[in-house]
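Example for tutorial group B:
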């Protein structure tokens, strides 16, 4: 194996297995940032754990089936991030919680589901989009989790900068730790290359693009992670926005509006599973499930003029009767 190929192989290997990380329970305290989320989650879970309340729980969830990932909300499953501690005295029962609050909870709950593409899937993805990217530019991953896509992008393609945006503090901290481990390994691997190292030494990237050794020497300056809500982060300078959006179904209209409002013409956006239905974007490629990744991948380009108006709402509602049948089966099995 050529020295550069061995170097990249070692770096990629260091990014694997993030999907097996241990989820951290949310902090249960009156001033915790997710206290309202925890309150609604506790109310829903109390109904789930009381068989006499199952019909009422189904009644409350039925109108919002389109924003639930799967059948039973992931936040109510044993491995969820809801604490197991007793409820705070001020917490309300489900009867006192509005439908709007339940829907907001379900949307947030979907966003907390964690998943990441495998390295071979990312390799196919970056190989597919590489011909559409000019050297330089800013790549932004909204909902970056443990940072695998951001760090793989910085290794695979000649982006000037790659930035991950993650809302959950524990995932952000894990991304920072993994990034430091990657940078330490990068230094070690560079030291093993034939000396002396020259910044302008040619380097062929795994994605097929030509670069120089500065691509790896400057890796610390080319990577950044931000702990923030993706709706509050300015992406106007981005040339590629990556969305692992498989659990973002209910958020897609709002995300499309944000990206249309901020991105410059020519900027690219990729989504998984869900389309980006907005007049400010045209689809460049649709990769069906099983080609680049286990799920469908869509690549869009921001183009043309747009008057700023919101597009018609896109529905992702499942078949109501089918969802209810699955829900009743799951409740009966408990």
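The residue assignment follows.
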């Amino acid at each position: 194996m050529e020295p550069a190929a061995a170097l990249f192989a070692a770096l990629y290997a260091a990014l694997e297995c993030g999907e097996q990380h241990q989820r951290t329970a949310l902090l249960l305290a009156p001033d915790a940032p997710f206290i309202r989320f925890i309150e609604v989650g506790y109310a829903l879970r109390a109904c789930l754990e009381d068989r006499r309340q199952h019909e009422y729980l189904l009644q409350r969830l039925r109108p919002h089936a389109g924003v639930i990932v799967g059948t039973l909300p992931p936040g109510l499953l044993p491995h969820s991030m809801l604490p197991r501690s007793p409820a705070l005295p001020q917490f309300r029962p489900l009867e006192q919680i509005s439908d709007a609050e339940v829907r907001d909870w379900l949307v947030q709950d979907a966003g907390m589901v964690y998943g990441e593409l495998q390295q071979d899937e990312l390799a196919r993805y970056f190989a597919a989009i590489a011909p559409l990217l000019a050297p330089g530019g800013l790549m932004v991953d909204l909902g970056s989790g443990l940072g695998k896509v951001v760090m793989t992008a910085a290794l695979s393609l000649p982006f000037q900068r790659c930035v991950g945006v993650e809302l959950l503090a524990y995932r952000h901290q894990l991304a920072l730790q993994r990034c430091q481990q990657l940078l330490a390994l990068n230094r070690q691997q560079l030291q093993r290359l034939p000396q002396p190292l020259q910044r302008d030494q040619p380097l062929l990237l795994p994605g097929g693009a030509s670069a120089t050794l500065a691509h790896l020497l400057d890796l610390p300056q080319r990577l950044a992670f931000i702990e923030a809500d993706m709706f509050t982060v300015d992406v106007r300078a981005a040339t590629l926005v990556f969305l692992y959006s498989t659990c973002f179904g209910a958020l897609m209209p709002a995300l499309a509006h944000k990206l249309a409002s901020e991105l410059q013409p020519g900027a690219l956006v990729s989504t998984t599973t869900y389309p980006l239905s907005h007049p400010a974007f045209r689809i460049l490629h649709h990769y069906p499930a099983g080609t680049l990744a286990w799920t469908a991948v869509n690549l869009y380009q921001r183009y043309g003029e747009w008057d700023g108006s919101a597009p018609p709402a896109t529905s992702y509602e499942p078949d109501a009767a089918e969802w209810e049948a699955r829900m009743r089966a799951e409740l009966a099995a408990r």
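The mean pLDDT is 92. Compare this with the pattern of hydrophobic and polar residues in the output above.
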